[in-house]
Specification:
2 domains, four-stranded antiparallel beta sheet
Length: about 425
Amino acid sequence: MPKQNIVCLAVDRLRAAALGAYGNTWFETRALDSLASESFVFDHYLIDSPQLPQLYRSYWQGRHALEADPTEGGGRSGIDVLRESGWTTALVTDEPAVARLPLAESFEECLVVTPDSGDSPVADAIEQTQTARLFAEVATWIDTVGKDAAGKSDENQPFLLWVHARGMDGAWDAPVELRNSLVEEDEPAPPQDAHVPRERLDENYDPDQLHGAACAHAGQVMALDVCVGALMDLLRECSLLENTLVVLLGVRGFPLGEHGRLGDVDAALHAELVHVPLLVRMPDGCGAMGRSQALIQPPDLLATLFDWLRIKNGQPSHFAQSMLPLVRGERDILRDHVAILGDGAERALRTPAWHLRQSGSDDSHLSPEGCELFVKPDDRWEQNEVSSRCADISERLAEVLQQFEHLSQADQLGNLPPLDEILLRGFG
Protein backbone atom coordinates (compact mmCIF):
# COMPACT_ATOMS: atom_id res chain seq x y z
CA MET A 1 0.00 0.00 0.00
CA PRO A 2 1.43 3.43 -0.92
CA LYS A 3 2.16 5.92 1.81
CA GLN A 4 -0.63 8.32 2.59
CA ASN A 5 -0.83 12.05 1.85
CA ILE A 6 -2.14 14.82 4.09
CA VAL A 7 -3.86 18.07 3.14
CA CYS A 8 -4.59 20.38 6.06
CA LEU A 9 -6.75 23.46 5.40
CA ALA A 10 -6.43 25.92 8.29
CA VAL A 11 -8.74 28.93 7.89
CA ASP A 12 -8.41 31.88 10.23
CA ARG A 13 -11.49 33.49 11.81
CA LEU A 14 -13.75 30.65 10.67
CA ARG A 15 -16.48 30.27 13.28
CA ALA A 16 -17.87 26.84 14.03
CA ALA A 17 -21.34 28.38 13.75
CA ALA A 18 -20.68 29.28 10.09
CA LEU A 19 -20.86 25.65 8.94
CA GLY A 20 -23.99 23.63 8.41
CA ALA A 21 -22.42 20.75 10.34
CA TYR A 22 -22.45 23.00 13.42
CA GLY A 23 -25.98 24.30 12.99
CA ASN A 24 -25.82 27.05 10.36
CA THR A 25 -29.05 27.26 8.35
CA TRP A 26 -28.79 30.94 7.39
CA PHE A 27 -26.73 30.59 4.22
CA GLU A 28 -25.58 27.71 2.05
CA THR A 29 -22.10 26.19 2.20
CA ARG A 30 -22.58 23.23 -0.10
CA ALA A 31 -18.93 22.24 -0.48
CA LEU A 32 -18.20 22.51 3.24
CA ASP A 33 -21.37 20.58 4.02
CA SER A 34 -20.36 17.91 1.50
CA LEU A 35 -16.92 17.67 3.07
CA ALA A 36 -18.53 17.37 6.52
CA SER A 37 -20.75 14.53 5.27
CA GLU A 38 -17.62 12.63 4.26
CA SER A 39 -15.76 13.50 7.47
CA PHE A 40 -15.77 12.88 11.18
CA VAL A 41 -16.93 16.06 12.94
CA PHE A 42 -15.53 17.18 16.29
CA ASP A 43 -18.19 19.20 18.07
CA HIS A 44 -15.96 20.59 20.81
CA TYR A 45 -12.68 21.57 19.23
CA LEU A 46 -11.11 24.38 21.29
CA ILE A 47 -7.91 26.21 20.41
CA ASP A 48 -5.35 26.41 23.21
CA SER A 49 -4.28 29.99 22.42
CA PRO A 50 -5.50 32.80 20.13
CA GLN A 51 -1.89 33.83 19.46
CA LEU A 52 -0.49 32.39 16.22
CA PRO A 53 3.05 31.58 17.52
CA GLN A 54 1.72 29.55 20.46
CA LEU A 55 -1.05 28.01 18.40
CA TYR A 56 1.24 26.83 15.63
CA ARG A 57 3.74 25.45 18.10
CA SER A 58 0.84 23.30 19.32
CA TYR A 59 0.07 22.14 15.77
CA TRP A 60 3.59 21.51 14.59
CA GLN A 61 5.25 20.32 17.81
CA GLY A 62 2.24 18.77 19.51
CA ARG A 63 2.84 20.72 22.74
CA HIS A 64 0.10 22.59 24.57
CA ALA A 65 0.37 26.38 24.52
CA LEU A 66 0.80 26.41 28.32
CA GLU A 67 3.70 23.97 28.25
CA ALA A 68 7.17 25.39 28.75
CA ASP A 69 9.04 26.16 25.53
CA PRO A 70 12.79 25.77 26.08
CA THR A 71 13.48 26.44 22.39
CA GLU A 72 11.54 29.75 22.31
CA GLY A 73 9.42 28.73 19.36
CA GLY A 74 12.01 26.77 17.43
CA GLY A 75 13.45 23.30 17.84
CA ARG A 76 12.45 20.01 16.32
CA SER A 77 8.92 19.73 14.97
CA GLY A 78 6.56 17.06 13.72
CA ILE A 79 7.20 18.42 10.24
CA ASP A 80 10.88 17.48 10.65
CA VAL A 81 9.82 13.96 11.63
CA LEU A 82 7.65 13.62 8.54
CA ARG A 83 10.43 14.87 6.28
CA GLU A 84 12.87 12.39 7.78
CA SER A 85 10.28 9.64 7.29
CA GLY A 86 10.00 10.37 3.57
CA TRP A 87 7.21 12.90 3.23
CA THR A 88 7.45 15.94 0.96
CA THR A 89 6.28 18.93 3.00
CA ALA A 90 4.97 22.30 1.88
CA LEU A 91 3.39 25.33 3.54
CA VAL A 92 1.22 27.59 1.38
CA THR A 93 -0.16 30.70 3.05
CA ASP A 94 -1.29 34.27 2.51
CA GLU A 95 -0.34 35.20 6.08
CA PRO A 96 3.32 36.34 6.18
CA ALA A 97 3.35 36.08 9.98
CA VAL A 98 2.84 32.32 9.73
CA ALA A 99 5.59 31.97 7.13
CA ARG A 100 7.97 33.84 9.48
CA LEU A 101 7.41 31.51 12.42
CA PRO A 102 10.61 29.63 13.35
CA LEU A 103 8.89 26.26 12.97
CA ALA A 104 7.84 27.14 9.40
CA GLU A 105 11.46 26.57 8.43
CA SER A 106 10.80 22.84 8.93
CA PHE A 107 8.86 22.74 5.66
CA GLU A 108 10.85 21.94 2.54
CA GLU A 109 8.87 24.54 0.64
CA CYS A 110 7.12 27.67 1.85
CA LEU A 111 4.99 29.60 -0.64
CA VAL A 112 3.60 32.98 0.39
CA VAL A 113 0.79 34.59 -1.56
CA THR A 114 1.09 38.32 -0.92
CA PRO A 115 -2.06 39.43 0.92
CA ASP A 116 -4.18 42.28 -0.32
CA SER A 117 -3.74 45.59 1.45
CA GLY A 118 -6.30 46.82 3.96
CA ASP A 119 -7.81 49.26 1.45
CA SER A 120 -8.28 46.65 -1.29
CA PRO A 121 -11.57 46.90 -3.20
CA VAL A 122 -14.28 44.27 -3.11
CA ALA A 123 -13.76 41.75 -5.91
CA ASP A 124 -16.10 41.54 -8.89
CA ALA A 125 -15.93 37.72 -8.87
CA ILE A 126 -14.94 35.04 -6.37
CA GLU A 127 -11.97 34.10 -8.57
CA GLN A 128 -10.47 37.54 -7.87
CA THR A 129 -10.60 37.29 -4.07
CA GLN A 130 -7.58 36.85 -1.83
CA THR A 131 -8.81 33.40 -0.78
CA ALA A 132 -9.20 32.31 -4.41
CA ARG A 133 -5.68 33.51 -5.21
CA LEU A 134 -4.36 31.40 -2.34
CA PHE A 135 -6.29 28.32 -3.43
CA ALA A 136 -5.07 28.82 -7.00
CA GLU A 137 -1.50 28.58 -5.68
CA VAL A 138 -2.49 25.43 -3.79
CA ALA A 139 -3.94 23.96 -6.97
CA THR A 140 -0.74 24.76 -8.86
CA TRP A 141 1.34 23.02 -6.20
CA ILE A 142 -0.86 19.93 -6.36
CA ASP A 143 -0.76 19.94 -10.14
CA THR A 144 3.05 20.16 -10.28
CA VAL A 145 4.12 18.28 -7.14
CA GLY A 146 1.26 16.53 -5.43
CA LYS A 147 -0.14 14.92 -8.59
CA ASP A 148 2.87 12.61 -8.69
CA ALA A 149 1.63 11.03 -5.45
CA ALA A 150 -1.47 9.70 -7.21
CA GLY A 151 0.57 6.84 -8.65
CA LYS A 152 1.09 3.52 -6.92
CA SER A 153 4.75 2.91 -7.64
CA ASP A 154 7.26 2.83 -4.78
CA GLU A 155 9.29 5.76 -6.02
CA ASN A 156 6.45 8.24 -5.51
CA GLN A 157 6.83 10.29 -2.35
CA PRO A 158 3.84 11.09 -0.16
CA PHE A 159 3.25 14.69 0.83
CA LEU A 160 2.01 16.91 3.62
CA LEU A 161 0.46 20.12 2.30
CA TRP A 162 -0.40 22.64 5.03
CA VAL A 163 -2.53 25.58 3.86
CA HIS A 164 -3.01 28.54 6.19
CA ALA A 165 -5.62 30.97 4.85
CA ARG A 166 -6.09 34.41 6.38
CA GLY A 167 -9.75 33.79 5.68
CA MET A 168 -11.93 36.26 7.54
CA ASP A 169 -8.87 37.87 9.15
CA GLY A 170 -7.92 39.34 5.76
CA ALA A 171 -9.79 41.82 3.61
CA TRP A 172 -13.49 41.05 3.24
CA ASP A 173 -13.32 41.20 -0.53
CA ALA A 174 -15.96 38.64 -1.56
CA PRO A 175 -18.38 39.99 -4.20
CA VAL A 176 -21.03 42.20 -2.63
CA GLU A 177 -23.85 40.18 -4.18
CA LEU A 178 -23.03 37.37 -1.75
CA ARG A 179 -23.62 39.52 1.31
CA ASN A 180 -26.47 41.38 -0.35
CA SER A 181 -28.29 38.08 -0.93
CA LEU A 182 -28.75 37.73 2.83
CA VAL A 183 -30.55 41.05 3.29
CA GLU A 184 -34.31 41.37 3.10
CA GLU A 185 -35.90 44.12 1.01
CA ASP A 186 -36.81 46.25 4.04
CA GLU A 187 -33.35 45.95 5.65
CA PRO A 188 -30.43 48.37 5.20
CA ALA A 189 -27.71 47.30 2.79
CA PRO A 190 -24.63 45.69 4.40
CA PRO A 191 -21.21 47.35 4.08
CA GLN A 192 -20.03 47.52 0.49
CA ASP A 193 -16.29 47.72 1.17
CA ALA A 194 -13.61 45.19 2.20
CA HIS A 195 -13.01 46.66 5.66
CA VAL A 196 -12.74 44.12 8.50
CA PRO A 197 -14.62 45.43 11.56
CA ARG A 198 -12.83 45.50 14.91
CA GLU A 199 -14.61 47.40 17.66
CA ARG A 200 -16.23 47.23 21.09
CA LEU A 201 -19.97 47.73 21.00
CA ASP A 202 -21.61 50.00 23.54
CA GLU A 203 -25.10 49.45 24.91
CA ASN A 204 -26.62 51.64 22.21
CA TYR A 205 -25.00 49.96 19.23
CA ASP A 206 -26.89 49.90 15.94
CA PRO A 207 -28.25 46.35 15.33
CA ASP A 208 -28.33 47.07 11.60
CA GLN A 209 -24.58 47.63 11.70
CA LEU A 210 -24.12 44.28 13.42
CA HIS A 211 -26.39 42.51 10.95
CA GLY A 212 -24.50 44.06 8.05
CA ALA A 213 -21.19 42.83 9.45
CA ALA A 214 -22.63 39.34 9.88
CA CYS A 215 -23.79 39.38 6.24
CA ALA A 216 -20.32 40.46 5.08
CA HIS A 217 -18.67 37.74 7.17
CA ALA A 218 -21.08 35.20 5.70
CA GLY A 219 -20.17 36.38 2.20
CA GLN A 220 -16.55 35.57 2.93
CA VAL A 221 -17.49 32.09 4.10
CA MET A 222 -19.55 31.52 0.95
CA ALA A 223 -16.54 32.50 -1.17
CA LEU A 224 -14.37 30.14 0.87
CA ASP A 225 -16.93 27.41 0.25
CA VAL A 226 -16.51 27.75 -3.52
CA CYS A 227 -12.71 27.53 -3.17
CA VAL A 228 -12.87 24.44 -0.96
CA GLY A 229 -15.23 22.81 -3.43
CA ALA A 230 -12.85 23.46 -6.32
CA LEU A 231 -9.94 22.02 -4.34
CA MET A 232 -11.85 18.87 -3.45
CA ASP A 233 -12.82 18.47 -7.11
CA LEU A 234 -9.16 18.77 -8.09
CA LEU A 235 -8.07 16.15 -5.55
CA ARG A 236 -10.77 13.85 -6.86
CA GLU A 237 -9.82 14.41 -10.50
CA CYS A 238 -6.17 13.71 -9.70
CA SER A 239 -7.14 10.44 -7.98
CA LEU A 240 -5.61 11.72 -4.76
CA LEU A 241 -8.61 11.44 -2.45
CA GLU A 242 -8.32 7.67 -2.23
CA ASN A 243 -5.03 7.98 -0.36
CA THR A 244 -5.15 11.48 1.13
CA LEU A 245 -6.36 12.52 4.56
CA VAL A 246 -8.05 15.93 4.44
CA VAL A 247 -8.37 18.12 7.54
CA LEU A 248 -10.36 21.35 7.68
CA LEU A 249 -10.02 23.44 10.82
CA GLY A 250 -10.68 26.94 12.04
CA VAL A 251 -7.60 28.71 13.35
CA ARG A 252 -9.50 31.25 15.45
CA GLY A 253 -13.13 32.33 15.61
CA PHE A 254 -14.60 35.76 14.97
CA PRO A 255 -16.91 37.57 17.42
CA LEU A 256 -20.04 38.93 15.76
CA GLY A 257 -21.47 40.97 18.62
CA GLU A 258 -21.23 38.40 21.39
CA HIS A 259 -20.08 39.95 24.67
CA GLY A 260 -20.07 43.40 23.08
CA ARG A 261 -17.29 42.57 20.64
CA LEU A 262 -17.24 42.81 16.86
CA GLY A 263 -14.08 41.31 15.43
CA ASP A 264 -10.64 40.93 16.96
CA VAL A 265 -10.77 43.45 19.79
CA ASP A 266 -9.12 41.95 22.87
CA ALA A 267 -9.01 38.16 22.34
CA ALA A 268 -11.34 37.46 25.27
CA LEU A 269 -11.50 33.68 25.73
CA HIS A 270 -15.17 33.14 24.90
CA ALA A 271 -16.70 30.48 22.66
CA GLU A 272 -16.99 32.75 19.62
CA LEU A 273 -13.19 32.98 19.57
CA VAL A 274 -11.98 29.62 20.91
CA HIS A 275 -14.61 27.19 19.57
CA VAL A 276 -13.78 26.43 15.93
CA PRO A 277 -14.67 23.68 13.45
CA LEU A 278 -12.63 20.53 12.92
CA LEU A 279 -13.46 18.07 10.13
CA VAL A 280 -11.30 15.01 9.46
CA ARG A 281 -11.93 13.15 6.21
CA MET A 282 -10.31 9.72 6.19
CA PRO A 283 -9.38 8.39 2.73
CA ASP A 284 -11.03 5.02 3.42
CA GLY A 285 -14.28 6.61 4.58
CA CYS A 286 -13.79 5.60 8.21
CA GLY A 287 -15.89 7.78 10.53
CA ALA A 288 -17.83 9.47 7.72
CA MET A 289 -20.90 11.28 9.07
CA GLY A 290 -19.81 10.49 12.63
CA ARG A 291 -19.22 13.07 15.33
CA SER A 292 -17.80 13.33 18.81
CA GLN A 293 -18.50 15.40 21.93
CA ALA A 294 -14.93 14.88 23.18
CA LEU A 295 -12.81 17.89 24.19
CA ILE A 296 -10.12 18.28 21.50
CA GLN A 297 -7.21 20.74 21.25
CA PRO A 298 -4.53 21.52 18.61
CA PRO A 299 -1.76 19.22 19.95
CA ASP A 300 -4.05 16.25 19.28
CA LEU A 301 -3.79 16.77 15.52
CA LEU A 302 -0.10 15.88 15.33
CA ALA A 303 -0.62 12.87 17.59
CA THR A 304 -3.42 11.76 15.25
CA LEU A 305 -1.28 12.13 12.14
CA PHE A 306 1.56 10.14 13.69
CA ASP A 307 -0.88 7.44 14.79
CA TRP A 308 -2.47 7.22 11.35
CA LEU A 309 0.88 7.14 9.58
CA ARG A 310 2.29 4.68 12.16
CA ILE A 311 5.20 6.95 12.97
CA LYS A 312 6.62 6.05 16.38
CA ASN A 313 9.57 8.41 16.72
CA GLY A 314 9.25 12.04 17.78
CA GLN A 315 5.85 11.69 19.43
CA PRO A 316 4.23 14.86 20.84
CA SER A 317 3.97 15.71 24.54
CA HIS A 318 2.13 13.70 27.17
CA PHE A 319 -0.94 15.93 26.71
CA ALA A 320 -1.46 15.23 22.99
CA GLN A 321 -3.66 12.24 22.19
CA SER A 322 -4.66 10.61 18.92
CA MET A 323 -8.23 11.22 17.80
CA LEU A 324 -8.36 7.98 15.79
CA PRO A 325 -9.95 5.94 18.63
CA LEU A 326 -12.81 8.46 18.56
CA VAL A 327 -13.14 8.22 14.77
CA ARG A 328 -13.18 4.42 14.95
CA GLY A 329 -15.74 4.36 17.76
CA GLU A 330 -13.30 2.77 20.21
CA ARG A 331 -13.56 5.61 22.75
CA ASP A 332 -16.00 8.38 23.65
CA ILE A 333 -13.64 10.85 25.37
CA LEU A 334 -9.94 11.67 25.48
CA ARG A 335 -9.86 13.87 28.60
CA ASP A 336 -12.23 15.58 31.01
CA HIS A 337 -10.89 19.14 30.84
CA VAL A 338 -8.76 21.47 28.73
CA ALA A 339 -7.15 24.85 29.33
CA ILE A 340 -6.61 27.88 27.11
CA LEU A 341 -3.80 30.45 27.30
CA GLY A 342 -4.91 34.03 26.68
CA ASP A 343 -3.15 37.37 26.58
CA GLY A 344 -1.24 38.27 29.72
CA ALA A 345 -2.73 36.52 32.75
CA GLU A 346 -5.99 35.56 31.06
CA ARG A 347 -6.81 31.86 31.12
CA ALA A 348 -9.82 29.63 30.50
CA LEU A 349 -10.81 26.14 31.55
CA ARG A 350 -13.41 23.98 29.82
CA THR A 351 -15.00 20.79 31.11
CA PRO A 352 -18.05 18.99 29.67
CA ALA A 353 -20.20 20.93 32.15
CA TRP A 354 -18.51 24.32 32.60
CA HIS A 355 -16.50 27.08 30.94
CA LEU A 356 -14.45 29.22 33.33
CA ARG A 357 -12.80 32.40 32.08
CA GLN A 358 -10.26 34.19 34.28
CA SER A 359 -9.60 37.74 33.23
CA GLY A 360 -6.34 37.94 35.17
CA SER A 361 -7.34 41.26 36.69
CA ASP A 362 -7.24 40.03 40.29
CA ASP A 363 -4.26 38.95 42.38
CA SER A 364 -5.49 35.54 43.46
CA HIS A 365 -5.96 32.61 41.08
CA LEU A 366 -8.39 31.07 43.54
CA SER A 367 -10.79 33.97 43.88
CA PRO A 368 -14.06 33.79 41.95
CA GLU A 369 -13.75 37.54 41.47
CA GLY A 370 -12.34 38.31 38.08
CA CYS A 371 -13.86 35.06 36.78
CA GLU A 372 -16.77 34.33 34.48
CA LEU A 373 -18.56 30.99 34.64
CA PHE A 374 -20.94 29.48 32.08
CA VAL A 375 -22.91 26.24 31.98
CA LYS A 376 -22.01 23.87 29.15
CA PRO A 377 -23.10 22.68 26.71
CA ASP A 378 -26.48 24.40 27.18
CA ASP A 379 -25.16 27.97 27.14
CA ARG A 380 -23.46 27.63 23.77
CA TRP A 381 -22.76 31.35 23.32
CA GLU A 382 -22.12 32.07 27.01
CA GLN A 383 -24.89 34.58 27.58
CA ASN A 384 -25.72 33.64 31.20
CA GLU A 385 -22.84 34.27 33.58
CA VAL A 386 -23.36 32.25 36.81
CA SER A 387 -20.22 32.70 38.92
CA SER A 388 -22.11 34.66 41.60
CA ARG A 389 -24.53 31.75 42.02
CA CYS A 390 -21.86 29.04 41.79
CA ALA A 391 -18.95 30.56 43.73
CA ASP A 392 -17.83 27.16 45.00
CA ILE A 393 -17.70 25.78 41.46
CA SER A 394 -15.69 28.81 40.30
CA GLU A 395 -13.14 28.34 43.09
CA ARG A 396 -12.75 24.64 42.43
CA LEU A 397 -12.36 25.15 38.70
CA ALA A 398 -9.80 27.88 39.36
CA GLU A 399 -7.83 25.37 41.42
CA VAL A 400 -8.00 22.87 38.55
CA LEU A 401 -6.77 25.55 36.15
CA GLN A 402 -3.89 26.45 38.44
CA GLN A 403 -2.97 22.77 38.67
CA PHE A 404 -3.13 22.41 34.88
CA GLU A 405 -0.74 25.33 34.43
CA HIS A 406 1.63 24.04 37.11
CA LEU A 407 1.78 20.56 35.55
CA SER A 408 2.21 22.02 32.07
CA GLN A 409 5.25 24.03 33.15
CA ALA A 410 6.72 20.89 34.71
CA ASP A 411 6.06 18.84 31.53
CA GLN A 412 3.70 16.62 33.52
CA LEU A 413 0.37 17.10 31.74
CA GLY A 414 0.11 13.35 31.43
CA ASN A 415 -0.50 13.29 35.19
CA LEU A 416 -3.66 15.42 35.24
CA PRO A 417 -5.97 13.98 37.92
CA PRO A 418 -9.59 13.25 36.96
CA LEU A 419 -12.32 15.71 37.88
CA ASP A 420 -14.98 14.95 40.46
CA GLU A 421 -18.58 14.48 39.42
CA ILE A 422 -19.88 18.04 39.94
CA LEU A 423 -17.11 19.52 37.77
CA LEU A 424 -17.55 16.83 35.16
CA ARG A 425 -21.34 16.50 35.00
CA GLY A 426 -22.60 19.71 36.56
CA PHE A 427 -25.83 19.69 38.54
CA GLY A 428 -27.57 17.38 36.10
